[in-house]
Amino acid sequence: MTRLILCTAALAALVIAGPTRASVTVIGGGQAEACSRAALAGKSELRFETPCTKSLEEEQLSPRDRAGTFVNRGVLRMRRSNWQAATKDFNQAVHIKPDLAEAYINRGAASIGEHRYADGLTDLNKGIALGSEEPAKAYYNRALAYEGLEDVKAAYFDYQKAVELSPEWAAPKEQLVRFHVGRKE
């Protein structure tokens, strides 16, 4: 018996839900840590980018912290739908630290924001393979990409995986409400 998964208003959900961002924790004081705190706290105002930029221009950072600061500044930019600037930051992070999963997850999220779902899917798959610190967000974003590519079945299973990984998180549960699972005759 084959299961049939149907979803209504998928593209509307992409616009309403938007991609989810994954920040990188940077500790040790200084502007990089202030940038990290702003990204982790969900800030979006332009003024919160200043510590990130100052850190990148003035502070001596390890490759991981430098890449993480690019990711965090990109997250702040993405929250304001500044997709191109965010993508530039994620590209820099990937260049510095090609094994930083969050750089790929966020670059994938920026691609979703620009409705470039196939590009987003490639980055999200890479980020998941590298082992994201917040895998539920990666699967949620990948579900959004699958919906944008009209692969409803794959989207459904990724929303389910996001719920499994983070049962207290409401966003994937809200998306699953739109699906109807039945038997194909």
Fill in the keyword field for this structure.
185 residues; mainly alpha; two-stranded antiparallel sheet; 2 strands
Gist?
The chain has helices spanning 10-17, 30-40, 49-58, 63-79, 83-96, 101-113, 117-130, 135-148, 152-165, 170-176, and strands at residues 3-7, 179-183.
Largest sheet: 2 strands, antiparallel
Q: Unreliable runs, pLDDT <50, ≥5 residues?
A: 1-17
List the helices and strands in order: EHHHHHHHHHHE
Outline, from the CA principal axes? elongated
Q: How many H/I helices? A: 10
Q: Roughly how much helix do the residues carry, as a percent range?
A: 55-70%
Into which percentage range does the β-strand content fall?
A: 5-15%
Helix/strand/pairing class, anyone? Answer: mainly alpha
Strand order of the largest sheet: 1-2
Q: Could you tell me how far the N terminus lies from the C terminus, measured between alpha carbons in angstroms? A: 8 Å
Radius of gyration: 17 Å
Mean pLDDT: 87
Task: State the assembly state of the protein chains.
Answer: single chain
Task: Say how many strands there are.
Answer: 2
